[in-house]
Each structure stands twice: as C-alpha cells, then as structure tokens.
Write a structure and sequence with these properties.
It is built from 13 helices and nine strands. It is an alpha/beta fold.
C-alpha cells in the first residue's frame, strides 16, 4: 500500500482483497482470544474535528488489540488549520506518534495533512469520502453473501461521502451499484466518471428509489443531513421524504435482500424502526466490522516487521 490511506481509489484491486483477507484473519484471532500485537509499542494520533462514536471507539480499541496505543486529540486541543497550520501539525505529530487518523470536514485538509506528514495518515472521514466505512461494509456483505462478484448494492438517499466511497469501490471490484438520489443531490461527478471509465462494475444513478432497488441484494441508506448540514435538516426532510427505506421499498428488492446503514440512524426519517430492527438488518454486523477492517489498514500501513 501507499504510505497513506485517504481513498479507496488509491488502492489496487489486489490491495483491497488483501485488506479483506487480513481483516478476516484478525477478526478470527480476536474472537478466539489469540494475541496479535502487530503494532506493539506504536502510537496512533486521532484527530477529530467531527465527533463520532464508532470511529473513536473502533480505532482506540483496534490499536489496543494490535498492541499499540491511541491518543485522542479534540478539536479544541489541536486547532487544525486555525490555532496551528496543517503543515506544522503534520510535522510535529510525525515526531511524536507513528500514525495519524483524522476525521475532518474538507477533504483537502486530509490531503495536506498526508502531504506534510512523514508517517501514515488514515482518512477516518471527510465531507467527500468515508473509505474505512465502505471497506467494512463490503467485508460484511461478503460474510453474509459469501461473495462480492455480481452483488447488487442499492443506495438510497444523499449522494454524500458514503455514496462516493461506494462508487470508488465499484471501480476496484466487479459488483453492481445503483443509487437513488433527489435531483441536485447526486454524487461527485468526477468520482462517478472515474468508476464508469474503470469498467469494473455497472454503476447507475436514478431519481426513483423503486427503480434503483429493483432486484437488489442489499439496500443501503444514510442520514439525509450529515454533520455540518444541520441548518438544512428541515428542508432535506421534505426533499427526501420519498426516499425512506421501509417495507414497501423492500418489496422491489430480492426476497433475501438485507439492509445496511453506516449509523447513526435517524429512525422515522431515512429508515423505519421495522427495517432497522428487523431480520433484514445487518447494521450492527457492519458496525463491528469497522473495527476489523481498520485494524487491517493500520497493520498494513504501520507494521515495521
């Protein structure tokens, strides 16, 4: 792998599959109680401009299970780009820790952080991409469906960082990815063009949720208003009202279709309680797999063996 992990687009197909294999191996070791201190004595700095339950816990626990230590850096403590410039923060942290995970707003900020850091930088989320989430999601699908080739994943909602990262993965692995978004809320045009030019997968954008989920193996959604878009929340509820994942929408998918959500979920908005808590839902399996796939990413980037 490259020094950093900022986007799935940076990986080759073989590197993606290698991460899945390593994540599965590390998951089995963790479940069986086998010690796997691959990163013994190493420290990961965690920069959070956006708070998160799953991201912080999974990276901290992951580093502990790998034999290392994670250091949480709050927005007030580090002042990335305000109290101190990104290049200065990157160069200082490179003298103190062995790796950096950053959960930020602007994607250019993590690009700049990686540029100036001499240690590995992992993208824990930006407004453009959420690569660790989608790798963990596909690992979950592979566990439930025993394959990734030919799987039809249908995304319903905002063309946000989750949607963009699914499109990037579709440029690496052969599966079908359809998305239903309201007009004006489409995914990043350059990322979409990149995936289509790669020719690995069928990728299609619809404005009709029913059309997008027809024959789908997995229906995936996310919140309608992401962090930083709170002032748009009420307007988005009106715009996205027809994009709720519910029993009626599932009637258009395969009978054995499953439901995924990156969490946290706004129950009653993008998804109903019946779907979230029903037998179709594998959302908590995918939440757990964030831990295992991120451990694989950290092990690949930071191991000095």
């Amino acid at each position: 792998m490259n020094k950093d992990f900022l986007s799935i687009a940076d990986l080759s197909t073989d590197e993606v599959l290698s991460l899945f294999n390593l994540a599965s191996e590390l998951k089995q070791k963790q479940k069986s109680g086998e010690t796997h201190h691959i990163l013994k004595g190493q420290t990961l700095g965690l920069i959070f401009l956006k708070p998160s339950t799953r991201t912080r816990i999974s990276f901290e626990v992951g580093m502990f299970q790998l034999g290392g230590h994670a250091l949480y850096l709050s927005p007030a403590e580090i002042g990335l780009g305000t109290r101190e410039s990104i290049p200065d923060v990157a160069r200082v942290l490179s003298r103190f820790v062995d790796g950096i995970m950053a959960r930020l707003f602007g994607h250019q900020d993590i690009v700049d952080l990686a540029k100036w850091a001499s240690i590995p930088v992992v993208n824990g989320l930006t407004d453009l991409l959420h690569p660790c989430q989608i790798l963990g999601d596909m690992l979950t699908i592979m566990e439930h469906k025993n394959r990734y080739e030919g799987i039809h994943v249908a995304y319903v909602g905002d063309g946000n960082n989750i949607c963009n990262s699914w499109i990037n993965l579709a440029a690496k692995l052969p599966f079908k990815f359809t998305m239903a978004v309201p007009e004006g809320y489409e995914p990043d045009a350059d990322i979409l063009a990149y995936a289509k030019s790669a020719g690995k997968s069928e990728v299609a954008v619809y404005h009709s949720p029913q059309e997008a989920v027809r024959g789908a193996d997995v229906i995936y959604t996310d919140v309608w208003a992401s962090m930083g878009q709170e002032d748009e929340s009420e307007a988005r509820k009106r715009i996205f009202a027809d994009y709720q994942v519910n029993d009626a929408l599932f009637e258009h998918a395969r009978k054995d279709a499953q439901f995924m959500h990156c969490l946290p979920a706004h129950r009653g908005d993008e998804v109903t309680d019946a779907i979230m808590d029903g037998q179709r839902s594998i959302v908590f399996d995918q939440a757990e797999n964030r831990l295992h796939i991120q451990k694989a990413v950290l092990a690949q980037l930071m191991s000095k063996q």
